[in-house]
Amino acid sequence: MSERHPRRDMSERNPLLETRGVTVRFGGNVALANVDLDAWPGQVTGLIGPNGAGKTTLFNVICGLQRPDSGLVRIDGRDVTRLLPYKRARAGLARTFQRLELFTLLDVRSNIRVAADIERRHRRDRSIDPAKVADEIIERVGLDAVADARVDQLPTGQARLVEVGRALASRPRVLLLDEPASGQDESETAAFAHLLRDLAADGLSIVLVEHDVRLVLEVSDEVCVLDFGEVLAVGTPAEIQSNQAVVAAYLGEGVS
Questions:
Q1: Which of 14, 46, 84, 119 satisfies CB 3.0 to 4.6 Å to 223 for a cystine?
Q2: Distance between alpha carbon 21 and the CA centroid of its chain, in Å?
Q3: Residue 56: which domain range?
Q4: Same domain, 6 and 86
Q5: Mean pLDDT of the region 8-18
Q6: Same structural domain for residues 176 and 131?
Q7: Can you say how many angstroms the Cα of residue 98 is from the centroid of all Cα atoms in its chain?
Q8: Domain count across the chain
Q9: Does 74 share its domain with 137?
């Protein structure tokens, strides 16, 4: 697996997304403690850890839904820590959620076109054809067969692809995915892994939170492991699998 994920040359470029010293407290509980995370253009960064480790809280901090007690967030070198969520979106950030957040009474095409319409208005670019953008994304994520189906009639695995497609319609540079493979069968997960690698190859920076550890290890260039709100380890998938602290805290002996 290490051959599939060569270590990057950090001298050649800077991360598109950075968190530095992010700390979040809920009363007397520390949800995140001094968390640093880097996500690079053209790569998938896996973010794993036990339930309650702080993964979704970190996503909320990055996208502006949770204010940190300390620390900062940068997108392409720009400090966005105090920006509202919509301004971070305009800076190139998009996100999916662990709980599906779709327009359930609309069909697949309309869900994605809504985001394309918003992007066109934001950019004030009349050359953007929202209908064409939606059709291209539907084809890319593999939803052609259900493009005209209402999303509340879809199985969970396909509904999550709709959310990914809607996020892509905003033309992000950084994409945060929270449990995007939940509800997928084996063949759907294999197709989704190919999609993630394909999107990264286009230069997108993807941060992936996913309980399917094998999927994370397969597609990620680098993996960050959280445990009790702290960074337990950062490394390539091969390094993470051989890290005894990670094996003991999360992976167990059966993951390869």
A1: 46
A2: 20
A3: 1-92+172-256
A4: yes
A5: 71
A6: no
A7: 11
A8: 2
A9: no
H helices present in the chain, as ranges: 55-63, 85-90, 108-123, 130-141, 156-168, 186-201, 213-219, 237-241, 244-246
Are both 159 and 211 inside the same structural domain?
Answer: no
Q: Compute the mean pLDDT over every residue in the chain, rounded to the nearest whole number.
A: 90
Whether residues 52 and 35 share a domain: the answer is yes
Task: State the Cα–Cα distance between residues 223 and 217, nearest whole angstrom.
Answer: 8
Token code pair at residue 27: 């009363």
- Give the pLDDT mean for 7-33: 84
Name the CA dihedral angle for 209, 36, 15, 224, rounded to a multiple of 10 degrees: -40
Nearest to 54 by CA among 41, 42, 71: 71
The CA–CA distances, whole Å, from 30 to 18, 47, 178 equal 21, 18, 21
In whole angstroms, give the CA distance from residue 12 to residue 23: 29
Q: What is the pLDDT of residues 118-164, one digit of tens each?
A: 888 877 777 778 899 999 999 999 999 999 999 999 999 999 999 99
Q: Which of 125, 147, 170 is the last residue of a domain?
A: 170
The structure's pTM equals 0.90
The amino acid occupying position 113 is R
pLDDT of residue 123: 75
CA dist 165 → 110, 113, 119, 189, 200 (Å): 11, 10, 13, 16, 15
- Residues 1 and 66 both lie in one domain: yes
Q: Distance between CA 111 and CA 20 in Å, rounded?
A: 34
